[in-house]
Every structure is written in structure tokens, then in C-alpha cells.
């Protein structure tokens, strides 16, 4: 295990250095370009490069691309800039801004007959729908986009859509379907030799196999994913894999808390570096679990306070609910019954809220279906 960890660190360092070198090269060249479409395209490349490293920088270049596209009167490039702007807003959790940018990008793309950009924006709209937990509607939107992608023979779009479908099925515990669509997407991105896509799908397959307790497959896919993510300098992706590796070592048939502790700390380090609150919170939650398992309740209490602070800026009710329930167990281990009951109650309130939200959405979907059927009968 020690040898494996050293290899991961060496790969990661060289990959991140190459990624920074690529960024520096683009930035050095972009200043020498005239204010035309080539410069806008370079800005868009910088948005993509920074999207998983530094959100503020990504948005800065998105604004530059948008402004220059307006000055040049290029609706095609303006739509591309807005589309990329939306993807950064989505990662930052600014969903309203993301949807507004996507709506604008679609309108511009319709004017210039850019069907590929329309497809890309529709896929992102489906992702937003999914992000808001409207899963049935998101699945409909994704299958609609998939049909269009297949007509256009766009393998990259097909792969992305199948990946998003798999993520919904994973969340709904339909693991067979999640594996099916991720495996199909992996075939497509390998045909395209698109390394970021390959690494993302390897990560997803590893996560799903972990859920079904197929530990050999889980670690196999995560190791492949980490190798590629390190190679291409994908910091966010590396952080996600570190958390997955930690989960493997804590959930496997032969738990290894010390290895879990190491990988959660690696995930937290990257989360802080790239200012990703979600990754940081997941890593801190993992550290809490490890210290609880090891019986270090005082250490776990200190981590609990850090976790509560991280959760305050998130809207992830599921993670908040699980965190409060675990914090309750920590205080119970310390013999502080009052605090244990307090956090148990907070966890239950959030759990009930999640259940209530699901019921409301289900009721709305049933009502919408009824109204649609009624209209069809009337016709």
C-alpha cells in the first residue's frame, strides 16, 4: 500500500505541472492574438481549462470571451461563451445564472442554426433539472437529447448524456442501469480517445461497483481513473477519486482506517486548494467517520465543528442529514446525551424534509401526467 501511495503522488505532481504548463502557454499566446474569433476561441479554451481548477479565473475568461464576441458581432462565439459560462456557474451552485446563460445561448444558436450548440445547451439544461432533484423530468430531457445526438452521430454528446443518465440511476439505487449506461459511455469516449471523459467514467464505474460491494472492480476502476486524472492535471477529479479511495478502504470487507484517513486528507487538501466546498465537506465528513470508527471521539468532535461550518454554505440536504446523524453518534460516544439528541433531531428534521420534497415532486408529476392525459382525451 505504501508503494501504491508513493506512485500516486509522483504521477499527480507531474500531471499537475503539465496542466499548469498548458495553461501558461495558452495565456502567453492569447495576448499576442488580434481581437478576432481566434482570440475568443483561446479564451474559451482557458474557461475549459480553469473550470476544474479555479472558478474565478474561469468566469473571468468567460466574461472576456463574451465581451469580445459582442464586439465582433459573432453570435456563434457568443453562444459558446455563454454555454461555458453556464457550466462554471453550475459547478459554483449558481443555478439561476446558469439557466439564464443557457437560455440565452440556445436563442443565439437558433439564430445561427448551430444545432451542435443547441444540443450541448439542452444537455446542460437536463443536468440542471437533475441537480434540482426532478429526476423523472431530467430522464425525459436526457433521452430526448440522446435521440438528437444519435441522429447527429455525435458520439461525445451521446457519451455525456449516457453518463448523466447513469448518475441518476446510481442515485436511485438502480445500479445495473447505472453500470450499463456508464459502460456504454466509456466505449464511446475511448473511441474518441477523450481522456477527461474516460477518467470521469472510470470514476463513476468505481463508485457504483463500490455500492454493490464489488470491491475488486471498484478499486480497479478508481486506480485507472486516478492515473489519468493525475496525468491531465484534473484537480477536482483527483479530489473526487481520493474520496472514493477512502470510501473503499473504510467500506471494504477488510477496513483500513489509516488508509482512509490518508485519502480523505488528500481530498480535503485539494478541496481547499480549488475552493470546492462540496469536496471539502465530503472529505471532512469522511474524516469524522474514520475518527469515530477508531474511537477517537474528542478528535471527532473537533472535526464535527469543522464539518458544521462547511455544511452551512451548502444546500446538500442529504449530506447535512447524514452528517448530523453521525455527529449525534460522536456526542453519544462522549457521553453527552443532550448534544447527541440535539443533532439526532436535526438529522431527522432534514431527513423528513428530504422525504417531504420527494412526496411533493411525486404528487406534482402525477398531477402533470393526469392533466396531460385529460388534454389528450379532450382532443
Structure description:
With 379 residues, the chain is mostly helical. The chain has helices at 2-30, 37-50, 55-72, 75-92, 95-111, 115-131, 135-151, 155-171, 175-192, 195-211, 215-232, 235-251, 257-273, 277-293, 297-311, 317-334, 337-378. The longest helix is centred in the C-terminal third of the chain and has 42 residues, at 337-378. The chain is globular, with a radius of gyration of 22 Å. The termini are far apart. Residues 1-21 and 362-379 have low confidence and may be disordered.
Oligomer: single chain
Strand content: under 5%
Report the average pLDDT across residues: 81
Overall structural class, as computed from helix and strand content, comes to mainly alpha
Helix content: over 70%
How many strand elements?
A: 0
Helices and strands, with pairings:
Elements lengths: L1 H29 L6 H14 L4 H18 L2 H18 L2 H17 L3 H17 L3 H17 L3 H17 L3 H18 L2 H17 L3 H18 L2 H17 L5 H17 L3 H17 L3 H15 L5 H18 L2 H42 L1
Helix pairs in contact: 1-2, 1-11, 2-3, 2-4, 3-4, 4-5, 4-6, 5-6, 6-7, 6-8, 7-8, 8-9, 8-10, 9-10, 10-11, 10-12, 11-12, 12-13, 12-14, 13-14, 14-15, 14-16, 15-16, 16-17
